[in-house]
Amino acid sequence: MAQTTTFPVGSTTVSVTPLATNLAVPWELIWGPDNFIWMTEREGRISRVDPTTGQVLPLITVPDVLTSSEGGLLGMVLHPDFATSPYLYIVYNYNDGSYKEKLVRYTYSAAGTGSLSNPQVLLGNIPATSTHAGSRLLILPDRTLLMTTGDAQQRPEAQNTNALIGKVLRLNLDGTVPADNPVAGNPMYSFGHRNPQGLVRAANGKIYSSEHGQDAEDELNLIEPNRNYGWPTVEGNCNLPDEQAFCTANNVRAPLYSWAPTVGIAGLTYYNHPAIPEWSNTLLAVALRGGRLTQLPLSTSGDAVGTAASYLAGFGRLRAICVSPQGKIYVGTSNRDGRGTPATTDDRILVLENRAYVLANKSPRDAAFHLWPNPAQQAVSLRLPSPTTAPTTATVHDALGRVVRSANFVSGQQDMVVSLTGLGKGVYIVRATSGPEQFTRRLVVQ
């Protein structure tokens, strides 16, 4: 059995257990609509990981990925309507006469063990080098995609709004430029970035990014359209004379939080689950050189960060992080990236969980009823604990308890997609009734 350690978070005991081992630099972890963890590894492999057994199910090794120091296969995101639009977006480095970066869309087929095919380049020829490549991806509720890029060691280009590097870019899901971008025809969304490697949208609707500094300060930034984040003149806070003058003259957005000196801040996620109540409305960031998980409590408005706390020492370099609907946190180590000291089972995916919450509040079968995505917009996927053996109805109830959607599972079916078209924004209850059993989940519609 995998060895478990624990650490306290207030009155909650969090267990840490290796889930999957012997990986090769996991770069991205996503909780998928199939209730598996979707993972990229830097050398080019994309896999699904069973969160119960830790079994790694490879989908593809992207053929033209070229690793070089920090470069290779990086961020990934799934289409929010994956059941009807089974697209996967990745960003990676490749060689086309010189080292470059591109955004590519693949199509997923669930037949058999699953596969990815039909790659479509949505944005290519992005300048790159072996360091400062970014890159995380995030799809917003308006169905636009954000992509972070590092400065590729071309520092002044971070301030050039016509360059693709040192930016947060915004694209439509077909790779075109949204009509309402800050500059017409330009994918630039924000600029003045050095190497942002974390990107998340919180429940408050705000977008946050974690960014590598050079030596003095890493940053947690609140991303706003057409804002300047200062690099290369400003690193971290606007606290030096030259920085203060530049910030005033250029409307620089100062970070909400900085790590000084730098810790190599990487993946970033949002946590708001009763399993670990002390982490409600919190950003969680993982660090490479610092080898810790930082908890950053958000203010009610989301415009400020409270007192930070650090956890999860002893596992080396930490790069990727995601959260399941059950409130479990998955963290990927990065000890085989050439800058760490690998343990015999590295790299690993670690699962952080409050086991007492699961035991006290959820039966095993009830805990296995899943909704994805949540929050949702146009449709939600339902998964029962097991295929139906009795007539099973799914209902969506509004805040007054009224049934606003109803659908029946086909006999022997475990999964179903329920349309949310026409429902107003708000909190709903989804209930699945199968014979004497009833499963209930809270759903947020955006």
TrEMBL record:
Record-linked InterPro entries: 6-blade_b-propeller_TolB-like (IPR011042), Glc/Sorbosone_DH (IPR012938), Quinoprot_gluc/sorb_DH_b-prop (IPR011041), Secre_tail (IPR026444)
Domain Secretion system C-terminal sorting stretches: 371-445
Record's signal peptide: none
SUPFAM superfamilies named among the record's database cross-references: Soluble quinoprotein glucose dehydrogenase (SSF50952)
Glucose/Sorbosone dehydrogenase domain mapped to chain residues: 24-339
NCBIfam families reported in the protein's UniProt record: Por_Secre_tail (TIGR04183)
Name used for this protein in its record: Glucose dehydrogenase
